[in-house]
Amino acid sequence: MNKLLCLILCAACLASASMLGIDALGEENSLGGMANTAGRGFAGGAKTGDAEGASVVNPARMAFDTKVVFNLNFLIDMTTAESDKSTYSTTNISLPSLNFSFPMGTFGAIGLSLWQHYASNMEEDVQDSASRMDAEIKYQGSIYEIVPAYSVRLPFFRMMSLGASAHFVMGNVERSLTLGPDNSEVSKKDSWATNESMVTDYVSGTWEIKDHPAYYTLAMQFRGRQSSYYFSYTTPYTLQNDLTYNLRFSQLDTLKPTRSIREIEFPALLATGVNYRLYKRHNVMMDVQWRAWDTDVENIAGSWDLPKVTETQNDFMIALGYQRDGSPLFYESYLDRTTFRFGGWMKSWYVKDVYEYGGSIGAGLPMGKKGTTIDLALQGGKRTTGGHGDWEELFFGIRVGLMGVGTWGQTRGR
Amino acid sequence: MKKKFVLLSFLAIGTLALSACLFDSDEDGLGNWLSDQGLPDSYKVQTVSVDGLVPSEVNVYRDSTPLIMDGRIVFGNSANMSHEMAFEFLYGSKKDDSLFLKHFKKADTTGAHVALYVLTSFYKDKNIPVELLPIKEKLKVNVSWKLRKGKKKAFLDSLYDVSDSVWQRSLKKWKPDAVVDTTYSINVKKADGRVLFEIPGEFLDSLKTCHKYCHLEMRMAAPETENLYRFYTLSNTKKLASFNFRSIDKGDTLYKVLTYTPYRMANVIVNNDCSDCLVLHGGVKDSIVFEYPTEPIFEALSEFYGDEFPYKNGDDYDVRQAVVLAQLTFARDDSKGENHLGLPIRVMTGSIIDSSDKEVTVQEFYKLNKTDVVKSGHKNMVFYKGDSLTIQVTQGMRDFLNRANYGAKPKFTMFLYYPQLQDNDSTFKTKIVQKDTVKTRIVNGDTVEMKVSKGDTSYVYLSHYDYARYDFSSMMKKPATLKLWLATKRGGDDE
User: Fold this and answer.
1) What beta strand segments (E) does A157-214 contain?
2) Mean pLDDT over residues B306-318, rounded?
3) Contact B451, B438 (CB under 8 A)
């Protein structure tokens, strides 16, 4: 475990995931980027069990859990952007979410998640072919959400549960471009003036929800003998990004910063899913998420040749998955106790013309008697980018989820 | 546990292999990606010239506060300015004082003189191309003094508590007990000589009224001389300035002598130029402050960019360019100025900018144009070949363009700095000379050859001021040119 943490810490300084939408919000970590969900192609929002844990889209599901679940997720992600001419790759390690759920029997269940909803991360040095000066490009942004949730099964209609969660948004964003001079428009006798003059275009800001403390998700879950369904609605909200930007000559020699506020109107999110139990411990599932963007996303800061806005499209995701649950009986063989999953998804990003196709396989490896599990998922796929300079992205990711399970507060035989 | 590590190792190896094969970047991959996204890998530099700038306001600030001189002092006149010497002595601070005073009061013959060593480092400086010595003259000096007496130690202690600034202020309101005019024959032949100023007899009489403790302030002025003497004061222990008392009785063969080092010394400056003349003096804290109207600069920039300047974006102002370098070039005419050491003098520049709603002066950096410096020397010097003065005002203009919409004004300041020795040397650093060279300097129309030997240290500046005078009035009347090197964030299609 120490080694793993060490690896994560060492690699945390590496550059990032998808470079798409880096000037807008960054890449979305769908469904909290949980390793178990990712293993079945991001499907399975409707799947109930005794230790499924918190879900940021379907807070109602927790009510059917019987065990306390603590879940920590890591993602090692490699992305390569390709065009006809060239390729460019980055590797990234991130921690998309931390989740905790606490079932309280008839009193329902409470949950708490820390979710890095959107992230942009990039730090690169590039040599300008004209001046041979090193430019430094840095993007670092995260929109974090703290999501407390509550769900409860209906008193007489026990196969139904209702859940609600509030998303408190925070985070920051920074873009720093340290550049050398391009003297092509300056006469030769005047070029001395820019010798060793690096200029940094620096933007930084913080995230919050405009005029409101949080946005909310309401969900309803039905658990049938064979089929389970959920439906969730997330309220629309406006994210506010307070930015200050200026040109810096050194950390001490800066200009009076200019302030600006960008507001991003997030439309409501509708999500639904179904889980069908084919056979004992064998499940197939399908999830659909839909968020109809109707305004463009203003970019972090315009100028240079960067566009002022990132055009949006309907943010839609359809996911299909399969899972064979591991046997809960300790005396069964290890393979029998292991959960196996696979799935695939198609997602249209909030960024116009960006479509993602991905597939994944995963396993939940039980550790010890108490139900502690390491979830592993391997995912891969492709993002096509239409109008984005004919670049497309290939991605490959390894997700590791550490799930601790306990039976606090549960009486025997329940 | 073992299983986990095996698994993790496999994962790590797999990841590495994958990233090496599948996820590889080619050399220009990142650069191509950045340029396709519209991200820059350099900032575009553009130059804009604004001609015909005439200041809307010019002021000369003269600081007449006496200068505390711990290391060296000047005495006499130079370039329309008188430099007077002020001394402060605390008598009674030494053990032998009262014994000596007893004798001094009764003695048949008494005398006193001030001894000052000439500033050897200046008079011997090989870098000065003019003849400094000998100086021979009948020097008319006006000696004035003020004596306060005390009987108790507390009197002396209270004098130690007087801070420099309080003493400086008191010198400005100088009301002496007595003033005596006297004449000295001065003949300084050598750079390590000494000048003795015999103190008039009237002073000795007043000194005899002294009690146990005495506070003596003395001032010497030589308003008529044409020379400026430079002396050591208090920092060179071998060449300390001193006040020497002597007394002798009839029949004695040896004088009783008491030598005193001044507690403090100062130069009191008397400026004989008209108060509103745009004249700066070297060696003192004079500065000229000038401000330009904003309109011509705004006009030039909006013409250059083809839109309004400052540019308003929504409710806010968008500063889309920054000044990488700014230069102001004036027409220069040295003929009304006066320098004495035959060396060019550096003009230092500062900008007056806003810092948390307070005006502060920042000293401007100086960026070297090496090829130009080697060819025609630094452009920020006066008393040098050429007919223009170019100063760099980068920080000031940077601040001005950034705050233009908040009512900032381009406001700058200049003062005369030390004479420059490396006038056309691209290094601009103290260095060791690598080979014997002969440097020619033009002093008052004559060419003077200066030999520089291998192994000598070449300094950027002379370590002594030229107490020169420079008239900036024609420079401020004639239109100046502002040249800006701008880093722009503006893209090609964006605007």
Assistant:
1) 160-182, 199-209
2) 71
3) yes
The pLDDT value given to residue B289:
95
Residue A50 has pLDDT above 90, yes or no: no
Nearest CA in chain A to B362: A253
In the prediction, which pLDDT does B183 show? 94
Q: Say yes or no to pLDDT of A230 above 80.
A: yes
Q: Taking CB atoms and an 8 Å cutoff, what residues of chain B touch A23? A: 37
Distance (Å, rounded) from C-alpha B356 to C-alpha B360?
Answer: 9
Question: Chain A residues with CB inside 8 Å of B24's CB?
Answer: 80, 87, 89
Q: Do B40 and A80 touch (CB under 8 A)?
A: no
**Can you tell me the mean pLDDT for A293-300?**
90
Instruction: Retrieve residue A182's tokens.
Output: 């391009």
Residue A5 reports pLDDT greater than 50: no
Q: Which pLDDT value is given to residue B2?
A: 59
CB spacing of B42 vs A80 below 8 angstroms: no
Q: Cβ of B23 and A79 within 8 Å?
A: yes
CB interface of B with A, residues 29-68, below 8 Å: 29-34, 36-47
A153 within 8 A of B16, measured Cβ to Cβ: no
Report the chain A residue with the minimal C-alpha distance to residue B8.
A4
Report which of residues B232 and A88 the model is more confident about: B232
State the pTM of this model. 0.80
In one letter, which amino acid is A387?
G
B29/A396 Cβ within 8 A: no
Dihedral, CA of residue A325, residue A330, residue A332 and residue A336, to nearest 10: 20
B428-456 in b/e form (b: 16+ CB < 10 A) is eeeeeeeeeeebebebeeeeeeeebeeeb
Minimum-distance CB partner of B41 among A1, A4, A128: A128
Domain ranges of chain B: 47-62+275-488, 67-271
pLDDT tens by residue, B73-127 = 999 999 999 999 999 988 877 777 777 888 888 888 899 999 999 999 999 998 9
The ipTM estimated for the assembled molecules is: 0.76
pLDDT in tens, A154-188: 998 999 999 999 999 999 999 998 888 888 888 88
B365 in A contact zone (CB under 8 Å): no
**Residue in B23, B31, B399 nearest the CB of A126:** B31
Query: SS3 for B171?
Result: helix
Asked if A137 lies within 8 A of B369 by C-beta distance, the reply is no
Does residue A314 sit at the B interface (CB-CB below 8 Å)? Answer: no
Residues near A139 by beta carbon (within 8 Å), at least 6 away in sequence: A16, A22, A26, A120, A121, A122, A123, A174, A175
Domain boundaries, chain A: 2-406
What is the distance in angstroms between the Cα of B398 and the nearest Cα belonging to chain A? 8
What pLDDT is stored for residue A4 in this prediction?
42
CATH number attached to the domain at A2-406:
2.40.160.60
